[in-house]
Amino acid sequence: MSEQLRFTKEHEWLLVKGDVIRIGISDYAQNELGDIVFVDLPSVGDTVEEGEGIAALESVKAVSDVYSPVSGEVVAVNEELEDSPELVNESPLDQGWIVEIKVDGVAQTGDLMNKQEYEAFLKEV
Amino acid sequence: MFDRQRTKKMKGDGQLKQTPLTARHRALGAKMVDYAGFEMPVQYVGVLEEHNTVRTKVGIFDLTHMGEFELTGPGALDTVNHVTTNDASVLKEGEIQYSPLTNEEGGIIDDILVYRTADGFLLVVNAANAAKDYAWIEANLKPGTDLRDLSDELTLIAVQGPQSAPLVEEIFGISLAELKNYTFIEVTYEGTKVLLSRTGYTGEDGFELYFPNALADTMWDECLQKGEKYGVEPIGLGARDSLRLEARMPLYGNDIGEDTTPLEAGLTRFVKLDKASFIGKDALQKQKDEGVKRRLVAFVVTEKGIPRQGYPLLNLEGEEIGAVTSGTHSPTLDYPIGMGYVDVAYAKPETEIQIQVRKKLVRAKIIKGRFLA
Fold it and tell me: How far is B5 from chain A (nearest CA, A)?
C-alpha cells in the first residue's frame, strides 16, 4: 500500500488513482504535530491551485496547513475526520487521508519521492 | 505543511541551557524544544494524555527554567513593594502572593510569585523574563537590599493534580492538611532543605518543590516511583499551556506583556493603588480614573474552528474589536476556548462575538469566570 505513495518535501503524501489524487500527511508529519484535535476540511467542489492551503490540522498547541501538491477540484473529503480527527495520528497513510482532488490533465508526480527516497530525505531533516 | 507556527526544532548547537533533568527527559523519550533559551520537554507521550493525567490523577513538571531571586536585608520589603503592584507588607512568613511587575507606564514587565521567607523574599519569575527582571530590580533597589539570583542553583519540580497531595505527603512523610493554597513550608529530604509550596499553574490542587540541583535526579525518580500507584506521569510544556488556559490563567508573552496593563488584563485585585508608591502607580491610577478601553476576556467558541494567537475578533457586524491572545481546543471540555483583548463595549459576559479563523468567521461567546465548572 505505502509502496504506491509519493511524498513531498512538505511531508504530504499522494496516491494517484487515474486523474484523482488522494492526499494525506506522512507518519513523520503526524508525529511532529502531536495529537490532532480538529481538521478544517475544504468543501467538495472547491478548486485549488498547487501550493495553496487545502486543509488545516489543529493540534492542542498549534495549527498547520496542508498545501495542495496539485491543481484541480476537490471531489471528496474524508468526513470521518470531522468526528475522529485522531485518525490522522493513528493511521496517517490510510484511514487518515484528507482530500481527493481531480487534477486537470495528467498528474505530474515525477519530482516526488517514493517511500525509500522519502525515508532517506527524513534522515537529512 | 508546518509553515504556520512551526515548532522550533532542536538543532543541538549547544547554545541552549539545560536543566539538571534534561537527561531524564531524553531517556523518557520526550520531544525537546527551545523554550526561553532552555532545552525543555514539550511532550512525553502526547499533550492530550498528559493533560488528562493532571486533571484526573497527578503529573510532574520540570520547571527549572523559571527564575528565582532572593531579596534580603532591611530594605527588602521596600524594594519588593516598589517594583510590584501588589502589597507585600501584608505577607507573613510562609505566605505567597501573585503580583505583576510594572514599568512607569503601567505595562507588565512580568507576572511573578512573591514568597515571604524568614529573612526576606523569594521572587519566582518567568524564564523568558528572568534576565530583564533581574536588571530591572537591580536598577530599582532600595537602600539596604541584597539581591541574589538563585536561578542556576535551584531545581523546580511541580506536582499537580487531584492525587498530588497524597503523593507529596508520602515523599516527605508529612501531612499537608494544614498547608493552605499560596503558602509554603520548608521540609527536609535526605538532609537537604526543600521549599514546598501549595501553588501551581494548572487549576488543580498542586505543589511546587524548590531544592538544590544536586537533588534533582533523586527527587524526580522519587516522584515517579512513589507516584506509580497514583498514576503519575511526567508532563511537558504543551499540556502545561492547555491546562493553564482552561484554568483561565494568563501567559506572559501571550495574554499579558509590556503593552498591556494589569487593569486591562483583569488583574486589578493584584494592584494596590492605596500603597504609598510603586513603579507605574501614577499611570495605573490615571487609567483607572479614565477607565480602560480594552479588556482581556475569556470566550468559548460555539461553532467549529480553533482560535489562535493573533486571529482578529469581530463584533456581529463584522467590525474588528480586538484579537485573540491564546486559544486551543480544550481537552477537558472538548470544544475550543480562548482569551483575547476586546474593546470594553464587548467585554460583558454573554456577549456574542466572531473570530476570523483563516477564511471563516466563527461565533464565540464571552464567559464569566472559569471555563471549567
Answer: 6
Cross-chain Cβ contact B2/A11 below 8 Å: yes
Domains of chain B with CATH codes: 22-65+153-246 (3.30.1360.120), 67-138 (3.30.70.1400), 293-367 (2.40.30.110)
Chain B hits for A12, Cβ within 8 Å: 1
ipTM above 0.85, yes or no: no
Predicted confidence (pLDDT) per residue in B195-225, tens digit: 999 999 999 999 999 999 999 999 999 999 9
B364 contacts: CB under 8 Å, gap ≥ 6 = B299, B300, B301, B302, B303, B307, B313, B338, B352, B353, B354, B355
Strand pairing of B120-125 and A72-77? unpaired
Give the 3-state secondary structure of residue B161: coil
Class of domain A2-105: mainly beta
From chain A, the residues in CB contact with B239 under 8 A are 60
Across the interface, whether the CB atoms of A65 and B305 are under 8 A apart is answered no
B331 interfacial to chain A (CB closer than 8 Å)? yes
Per-residue pLDDT tens for B348-369?
999 999 999 988 999 999 999 8
Q: What percent of chain A has pLDDT over 90?
A: 74
Centroid of chain to Cα B73: 28
